[in-house]
Amino acid sequence: MSSPKGCFKIAGFGCLGVILILVVTTAVTALVAKRSIEGQVIEEYVSGTIRSDAAGGPTAPAGPGRVVLDFSDGEFILMSAPEGKGVTISARYDSTSYRLVDELVTLDDGRWEYRIGFRRTIPMLQAIAMQIFGDAVDPKVEVFLPTDVELELDLDVSQCGFSADLGGLWLSEADIHFDKGGFELDVSEPLREPMDRLVIHGSMGGFEASGLGNASPAVLVIDCRMGGAEVDLRGEWLQDCDASVTVDMGGMALIVPRDIEVTGVTVTGSSQLREIIPREMPMPVLRLDVTQNRGEVEVVRR
Fold this sequence. Notes:
20 strands; globular; ten-stranded mixed β-sheet; alpha/beta; 16% helix; 302 residues
């Protein structure tokens, strides 16, 4: 009888010790969070480093360029800039908890590259505690891209919410990666020129993409892992497209337009294509290859 009681006492002391540690840890975290909130330094950042013309400030080298965005832990918005404006950043954040960096570099081939990065500089637990225990400022970064400069876009976002409207831009290529977060992409109006290539890769999160036909990419790659997606390919298609769609441990709804021919569809199960509405002019061709692993892709025509 004594042995079980002893074990109970030891186990009880262990549980009390764990509870005590949790209480102390929570109290310390709350104290640190409170001091961090009181010590916030709110940064209002506006930059117009790259302009499309020579008026009013520094300019980028002539010709096409590349914009690289690397964002984490915040709210991020990407859209077109007003006419005549170049790459512009508008941000509001606590500079004691987050860091924004941007730099303009010249590549070996003579083209310019503008790099913008945003990162949390405090531990994640502290950032969460600041939101719970006080009135912490939510970081927000907006990036505006010019419509009259040919660009390549490289976008990498993680652990955050991101929305982008690429309508009206002049993009030759775009490579979009997101991880552990939500992502919304819209091409609200046709691009200045059809894209050569559009890649969307996501993991452990969900995204919505609409109006991708307005981008009219010659090559489209969508890879969704451990998450869900809704992809709308409707819009003004101006050229044929080779599209590769992969889903692994997730689900995707893929909407294709009525006025484009679809070939090479490998979707099985409930995924079906309705008959194409006849028209006089030849239609662009969407060569679609769908791969699904431990997931499902539903293809519908609307």
